[in-house]
Design goal:
The complex is a heterodimer of chains A (295) and B (223). Chain A has 295 residues and is an alpha+beta fold. Chain A has two domains: 3-53 and 161-294, no CATH class; 58-155, Alpha-Beta Plaits. Chain A has helices at 3-18, 20-56, 69-80, 93-103, 108-113, 135-145, 157-199, 201-209, 214-250, 252-259, 269-290, and strands at 58-63, 85-91, 122-127, 150-155. Chain A has a four-stranded antiparallel β-sheet. In chain A, α9 packs antiparallel against α11 (269-290). The two termini of chain A are 21 Å apart. Chain B has 223 residues and is an alpha/beta fold. In chain B, the strands form two sheets. A six-stranded mixed β-sheet of chain B has the order 6-7-8-3-9-10, with helices on both faces. Chain B has a four-stranded antiparallel β-sheet with strand order 2-1-4-5, covered by helices on one side. In chain B, β7 (158-162), α6 and β8 (189-193) form a beta-alpha-beta unit. In chain B, 41% of the residues are buried. The chains are: A alpha+beta (295), B alpha/beta (223). Chains A and B meet through α8 of A and α2 and α3 of B.
């Protein structure tokens, strides 16, 4: 039997023998990874929403009232000639009022209470997705602000950029918390491996005396940590999947309607692989550290 | 086979367990280390097994200076040495067969060869009918025979035994000593630490007498 086969066989026996303490170790690492998985899933979905909003972000060019047609036409032509512009739609004052009344029927009285239509005509400029947020957009909006016939220019990506920064900060904080939890999980795995090492001290002494290679002496403990960590991460992915299924079933339609994406998304394959790989990695590292005294 | 030059081992605050020991044991020789408790017998065996390192002097075994071995060389050296202890040092969770084959298994020996050699050596010590027993199911004499089988399974050049009959009655002790004589007859160097003078007389081989960590005498015991 190779050193690897021997290490797996011995580690499996040791985990079965450890019973409850191994289960506690798997549970602890699972909690850390459930937290990480929850953050990752939330992050994936928030990012999707942000990306969608960013893609649909547009520049609104509000026009002064009673703008001569030739000035409006010249402005529209100018906008359409810009390489970063994907589409331009003219929204007249009447159309803007109609939209308001359709979107906010309960506020119809407000719109009709004023003597004349308060909504300005505007050009709604859809940008090419790859250009959104780029320096050319800033240049375009700056140029439009001072142009004849333009009352105001609004680019709603700015608040999205701020929101993205807030989300990134939250993601970083979540990563730090998950890192601390994983460190704790690593210590738990190391403690279980140390217990196993203590229980097999006599065996280790004999292995050293018969001249067993170090891979045979330490290997089982490293593999034990690896298996505990990996099992914890797999449990965590399963729990996150269950939580996702429940959330998608009970909250999905409402939440999806609110955030504007078709449905919630589970962790991508990459995130799931990173989680499980991380579990194996944390476990193996803990096993390696804990088994140093077995040399 | 074994040569010590000015060998010394100090524990704690300057307490000598061995002091200035010069000793030569030839290849194929059977030697008893004897002396009262604390004379340094077990310390010498621990130094020969590299469980400890000397404080002063040198130990040379089969041309290798044990003080100069790297960690990996220490493991390689130990594969050439068989050991037997008073408390048997068997793994309680493994069967007789597993305890013996363990020494071959961890060296990566082919499974078929492990089985054949383990059975061979267990048959030689008369335990071929207890292959699947656990150590706690065996008598003291049987446990020591398992330990001897484990020491021999790698066909070592040198066998070290520390009070191997310390936990056994006189009849079983003679049985164990007979096994050591047979091992030695095959050309293996055997070093046995014991304070049992009757046993030494009965076996009748060279005796190294230690006292207070120093060589107190060399004698050929009467047969």
């Amino acid at each position: 039997m190779t050193a690897l086969g021997y290490a797996f066989a011995e580690a499996w026996t040791s985990i079965r023998r450890a019973g409850r303490s191994a289960a506690v170790s798997i549970g602890t690492i699972a909690v850390a990874f459930i937290t990480l998985g929850g953050f990752l899933m939330a992050s994936v979905n928030v990012q999707r929403v942000l990306d969608r909003w960013l893609e649909s972000a547009e520049v609104s060019v509000y026009l002064v009232d009673e703008l001569p047609d030739e000035v409006r036409t010249a402005l529209e032509l100018h906008l359409r000639q810009q390489p970063i512009v994907a589409a331009v739609e003219f929204v007249s004052k009447e159309k803007a009022l109609a939209r308001f009344e359709a979107d906010f029927p309960e506020l119809q009285d407000v719109a009709t209470a004023v003597p004349q239509n308060p909504f300005p005509a505007a050009f709604e400029v859809r940008l090419r997705p790859e250009e959104a947020g780029g320096p050319d957009v800033d240049e375009l909006t700056a140029g439009l602000s001072g142009r004849d016939g333009v009352a105001d220019v609004r680019y709603d990506r700015r608040w999205l950029t701020r929101l993205t920064n807030v989300v990134r900060t939250a993601q970083l904080a979540a990563a730090v918390i998950a890192g601390v939890l994983m460190l704790g999980a690593g210590f738990t795995v190391a403690a279980v491996v140390r217990l196993s090492l203590h229980a097999r001290r006599g065996e280790i002494d004999i292995m050293q005396l018969v001249g067993a290679p170090f891979s045979y002496i330490r290997g089982p403990f490293i593999v034990e940590g690896l298996l505990l960590g990996g099992a914890g991460a797999i449990v965590a992915v399963a729990v996150v999947a269950l939580a996702y299924t429940a959330a998608a079933r009970w909250l999905g339609p409402d939440l999806a309607g609110f955030i504007g994406v078709a449905q919630l998304q589970f962790l991508g394959l990459r995130e799931a692989v990173v989680m499980v790989g991380g579990g194996f990695g944390v476990g193996a590292a803990a096993g390696t550290v804990a088994s140093r005294s077995a040399r | 086979m074994i040569e010590t030059q000015g060998l010394g081992k100090i524990y704690g605050r300057g307490l000598y367990a061995l002091r200035g020991l010069n000793l030569t044991i030839d290849k194929g020789e059977f030697v008893f280390l004897t002396g009262p408790s604390g004379a340094g017998k077990s310390t010498l065996l621990r130094l020969l097994l590299l469980q400890e390192t000397p404080t002063e002097g040198e130990v040379i075994v089969a041309g290798r200076n044990l003080s100069r071995l790297s960690r990996h060389e220490v493991q390689a050296y130990r594969r050439t040495v068989g050991f037997v202890f008073q408390d048997f040092k068997l793994i309680p969770t493994k069967t007789v067969f597993e305890n013996v084959s363990f020494a071959l298994r961890v060296l990566g020996t082919a499974v078929e060869q492990q089985r054949r050699r383990t059975y061979q050596v267990l048959k030689w010590v008369g335990l071929q009918h207890r292959l699947n027993s656990f150590p706690e199911e065996l008598s003291g004499g049987e446990q020591q025979r398992v330990a001897i089988a484990r020491a021999l399974v790698n066909e070592p050049q040198l066998v070290l035994a520390d009070e191997p009959t310390g936990n056994l009655d006189p009849d079983l002790s003679l049985e164990i000593m007979n096994l050591f004589r047979e091992i030695n007859a095959g050309g293996t160097t055997v070093v046995v630490a014991t304070h049992d003078r009757e046993l030494i007389k009965w076996v009748g081989r060279r005796v190294v007498q230690l006292e207070h960590g120093q060589l107190a005498g060399l004698a050929e015991a009467p047969k």
